[in-house]
């Protein structure tokens, strides 16, 4: 019986070791993901700052990002490559933005996600 227990114990220790290894890799991936997210948010904030500064310098007065976006009808959007391709396709097909629906789940810092609803112009 003790021989069997040691085999089971070895198997259990092997399984526990693999679980710990997996948890370590998962933790590393989560840290890497967080670092990428922080870099993207930093880059987005810098682009917003540059847009605001460029509009303010051009017009000779201070603008908020919201004012600059409304005046110029432009906004910087953080998205995936796939979403970018979809937006390009909508634009080339003559679609127009008809609604923005807040999608506030999973927000990071001050960045909020939204659903952009397009309608095909006929």
Structure description:
With 122 residues, this protein is of the alpha+beta class. The protein has a domain of 46 residues. The protein has a two-stranded antiparallel sheet with strand order 1-2. A hairpin with a 2-residue loop joins β1 and β2. The longest helix has 58 residues. The model has no long low-confidence stretch (mean pLDDT 78).
- Please give the order of strands in the largest beta sheet: 1-2
**Given the helix and strand composition, which structural class is it?**
alpha+beta
Instruction: State the total count of DSSP E strands.
Output: 2
> Could you give the order of the helices and strands?
HHHEE
- What is the typical, i.e. mean, pLDDT? 78
Distance between the termini: 80 Å
Q: Regions with pLDDT < 50 over 5+ consecutive residues?
A: none
Question: If you compute it from the alpha carbons, what radius of gyration comes out, rounded to the nearest whole angstrom?
Answer: 25 Å
Number of helices: 3
User: Strand-residue fraction?
Assistant: 15-25%
Level of helix content? 55-70%
- What is the global morphology? elongated
């Amino acid at each position: 019986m003790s021989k069997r227990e040691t085999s089971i114990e070895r198997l259990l220790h092997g399984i526990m070791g693999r679980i710990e290894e997996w948890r370590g890799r998962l933790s590393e991936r989560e840290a890497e993901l967080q670092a990428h997210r922080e870099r993207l948010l930093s880059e987005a904030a810098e682009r917003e700052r540059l847009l605001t500064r460029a509009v303010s310098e051009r017009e000779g007065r201070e603008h908020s990002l919201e004012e600059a976006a409304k005046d110029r009808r432009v906004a910087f959007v953080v998205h995936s490559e796939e979403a970018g391709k979809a937006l390009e396709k909508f634009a080339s097909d003559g679609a127009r933005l008809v609604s923005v629906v807040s999608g506030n789940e999973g927000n990071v810092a001050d960045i909020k996600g939204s659903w952009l609803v397009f309608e095909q112009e006929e």
